[in-house]
Amino acid sequence: MEAVSLTGITPVQMLLEIGLDKMKKDYVNFFIGQELATLTSLDCFISTSVDLQEQVHCVQKLCHMLEIMVSCTVLLQFKHESLFPWTQICIKYYRENPLDEKHVFQLPVSSALVKKFYQDSHPEVWKVDISSGHGPKEVKTTWQVSTNPPVEHMISNNTGLLSDSTVNAGIEEKMYFITVVKCSQVHFR
Asked: What is the dihedral of CA 17, 20, 25, 29, to 10 degrees?
């Protein structure tokens, strides 16, 4: 067996390789153990044929995907049937893109999944975006319900469209303002 020199950067590089290998195995075990991914779908993240810097980026991507799934599981209490497609969306994104922890994933959520969160809460702002159609016929509609008026001059005349007293039988009088915006790429002649 050939002796390895433990001088210079070699020991640090060896520790890095050992740590990366351990972290890859841990992340892969989570995704496979939870039946959120297959080894084949994760192969690009665990490859050892790329340089160490790229391997570090791949482990960071796995870590970010794990954070998303754990947040959805622990905080939102979502089940496997929701987590599986979300994992696939994250994997697809990170196969094709560099690490971006500020990327906003648009994950499909049914209202039944989040009903328990909005049923008893009194938010300052609720917003829903709905898209229909594709390409030049796509129409995007946004509804926003807020305790703040959409423009400042509405404050003076108290013209809220929905009052909290109609919802909570007069516990605290709050006015809610509904704003609807539609955006279409259809050109009229």
From this structure: 180
The whole-model pTM stands at 0.64
Is the separation of the CB atoms in 24 and 45 below 8 Å?
yes
pLDDT tens digits along 122-134: 667 777 778 777 7
Alpha-carbon Rg for the chain in angstroms? 24
Residue 76, strand partner residues? none
Q: How far is residue 42's CA from residue 92's CA, in Å, rounded to a whole number?
A: 10
Rounded-to-integer distance, Cα 163 and Cα 174, Å: 6
How far from the centroid of its chain's Cα atoms is residue 75's Cα?
A: 13
> In this structure, are residues 84 and 100 in contact, taking their beta carbons and an 8 Å threshold?
no
